[in-house]
Design goal:
By secondary structure, the chain is an all-alpha fold. Helices cover about 70% and strands about 0% of the residues. The N and C termini lie far apart (about 45 Å).
Length: about 180
């Protein structure tokens, strides 16, 4: 019975048993941190890159989102999404850029971690179904890989080294009140 307790604690990142506080337990509890840092930094950079690129945020012309939407329309899994974006490519470009910034910042600092990761899932799913759907073989397209990488964070959130964890610790110490 003691062995089962140690194994469960170490594997699930629990605090019970000696193994839960050992190296395996600490590593298990921090296992999502590298993924969180990579995805957060990547989406933050992607959002900034879009906002600072005047060509991307144009309705037409070389390097514009409008031109890119025209190119992928016929090969998208859901051309209806492309049609929706083509109604206002500049507005859609700003929405994607701001969404990537919010997702990136939320993921990096661990604020509303599950919600930020769910935003990453939605952005990656949208890009996969529109921009990279026709990539063959499928594993050459990065949007599907990003989608799969966001899922563990959407399920687990940011339980360590995050504002979510700090606020949860404060609520635990001071009762249900968040402030005061």
């Amino acid at each position: 019975m003691v062995h089962a307790d140690r194994t469960i604690s170490a594997d699930l990142g629990g605090t019970g048993g000696a193994a839960g506080n050992g190296l395996r337990g600490r590593m298990a509890r921090g296992a999502l941190l590298p993924l969180r840092l990579f995805l957060g930094a990547t989406f933050l950079y992607a959002g900034l890159d879009k906002l600072l690129d005047a060509h991307f945020l144009a309705a037409s012309g070389t390097g514009s989102l409008g031109e890119l939407l025209t190119q992928v329309h016929d090969t998208a899994a859901l051309p209806q999404l492309v049609d929706l974006a083509q109604r206002s490519p500049v507005g859609f470009g700003y929405a994607i850029a701001v969404g990537e910034l919010a997702v990136g910042l939320g993921t990096l600092v661990g604020l509303l971690g599950r919600l930020a990761a769910f935003g990453g899932v939605l952005i990656s799913l949208t890009l996969w179904l529109t921009m990279s759907w026709s990539t063959t073989p499928y594993y050459y397209g990065n949007d599907l890989a990003y989608l799969m990488a966001w899922l563990p964070l959407a399920l687990a959130g940011a339980p360590r080294f995050s504002l979510d964890a700090a606020m949860a610790g404060r609520r635990k110490r001071h009762g249900a009140q968040l402030f005061g």
